[in-house]
Amino acid sequence: MAAIMGAIVGGLASLTSTWVGERSRHRRDLLQREITRREAAYSDFIDCASKVYVASATHRIDDDDAEVERAVSLYAVASRIRLFASEQVIKEAEKVIDRVLTQYGADNVSAEQLRMSVAETRDDPLKAFSIICRRELQDIQGGTPVRC
Fold first, then answer.
1. DSSP E strand boundaries for the chain
2. What are phi and psi of 60, to 5 degrees?
3. How many helices (H) and strands (E) does the chain have?
4. 55-67 tens-digit pLDDT
5. How many angstroms from the chain centroid is the CA of residue 36?
6. Distance from CA of residue 60 to its chain's centroid?
7. Is 64 helix (H, G, I), strand (E, B) or coil?
8. Residue 130: closest CA among 16, 24, 12, 50
9. What's the pLDDT at 148?
């Protein structure tokens, strides 16, 4: 009887250990996929917004169809982010879009004037968005967010 009980307990312990391990691995995999998906979307937004912001400073939106397509692509990436991001990330993305659209309405500047302006003011239109995204990704990973 003792041998049978020992075998049953040993088997259940092994089964439980395997089940817990697989469950933990599955959760890690899901978490890693979620982080990768968010990183890709946030990177796409930063890349697209950077290009559109520079274009908005040096061109008018009605100059050609390429400007409209750039703005539309920025909206598309932002809408993709809205599917899963936190409210803070969404608000910062909307601020970036508002700033780009405001810049399209302002006077055009040369690329050199834009460079000098950014160098003088240290004004980065995507800094707040990047910081919020980093914090969100760290929260998802369970890490301590970096305060800036």
1. none
2. -100, 150
3. 5, 0
4. 888 777 666 677 7
5. 9
6. 28
7. coil
8. 50
9. 40
Per-residue pLDDT tens over the stretch 85-95: 999 999 999 99
**Could you tell me the CA-to-CA distances from 139 to 12, 85, 88, 130, 132 in Å, in that order?**
35, 12, 13, 14, 10
Q: Which residue type is seen at 115?
A: R
In this structure, the number of other CB atoms found within 10 A of the CB of residue 118 comes to: 14
- Label each residue of 22-42 as H, E or C: HHHHHHHHHHHHHHHHHHHHH
Going by C-alpha positions, the residue among 79, 85, 78, 90 that lies closest to residue 139 is 85
pLDDT tens track for 96-131 = 999 988 888 777 777 777 777 777 777 788 999 999
